[in-house]
Design brief:
One of its GO terms (molecular function) is DNA-binding transcription factor activity. It holds the Pfam family LacI. This is Transcriptional regulator, LacI family. The protein contains twelve helices and twelve strands. By secondary structure, it is an alpha/beta fold. The protein folds into three domains: 44 residues, no CATH class; 125 residues, Rossmann fold (3-Layer(aba) Sandwich); 133 residues, Response regulator (Rossmann fold). The protein has a six-stranded parallel beta sheet with strand order 2-1-3-4-5-11, with helices on both faces. Strands 7-6-8-9-10-12 form a six-stranded mixed beta sheet, with helices on both faces. Helix 5 crosses helix 12. It is elongated. The termini are far apart. About 1% of the residues have low confidence.
Amino acid sequence: MKRDQGDKTPARRFISAQQVAQKAGVSRSAVSRAFTPGASIAPETREKVMQAAAELGYQVNDLARGLLANRSRLVGLIVTRPEVGFRAHLVSALTRALILRGSVPLIINTGSLEQELQAAQNALFGYRAAATIILSGSPPASFVELARRNGQPLIMIGRSEPDCDHVRIDNTGAARTAARLFVERGFTRLAVAGVASATPSLVEREEAFADEAQRLGASVVRAHGQEANYAGGQKAADALLGGDATAERPQAVFCVNDLVAIGLMDRARSRFGLDLPRELAMVGFDDIPEASWDAYRLSTFRQDPEKMAEGAVAHLERRLTDLDAPPSTLRLEATFVERSTTPGR
């Protein structure tokens, strides 16, 4: 916005270290040492600097300091649609954990179009982040390879890439547990509600559930929504419960995430008039807050975003201390949380 020539209001400027030095009556280098951990400075000098800084509202320019020292506190957090479902809670936990560590999280929403991906690449590598954390399903392998060529340590959450540190949930174990639970409670016609645009984690869950159910002698049908969201669950419900499926409706459904489960549940009740769990049992995955709401009371497998974030930061600490350390993988269990959509024994 162009400033009016008659506007005499001065442009807003950040308080400089030189202003702090003048107010405290010390040198500019003393201000720098006061804000540098471990630097040599007399206690009384440091006290004068801190008092002057507090009165002026001074904050250290970490970005400039990092550039001068060829060191960055930025950590790239690469994610597609960070506002959706469990991903939103994981991003929240990651940003909190990184800030507590003293890092500055740089969230890059990759988008779904080529120009959006290119813009994301430019943003991440232009700021020379110290490391990059990549969430399941995004971005494509070409992005990962570019990060490697730029010398960035990479931490993968819910995604497998060679020569990287990983945080992984036991998707296979949880999905097989869901199949056994249904069969043990007398269900023989099972279904899995998956997603056409599935991430590797969602594919793992679907395949493991179907494999275990068939191994136990149950029949399994599959239905897929387009996205791993509420609308995807509604579409899966229409395929499983409507039309020619009425005669042989499944008795129990495993949903690859809670948003799909909630969409399927609402459709099962409102359009098909089913009583849950008497006419249709359900299990989800993630344990997002909505799963515990009175309207749903969804039985599900819990991923703990705080533990996943702690694991990612532990990988980060180890990697930045020793760039040549061998890749490490943290495997976390998804614990079963039983609520009202699975009948008792």
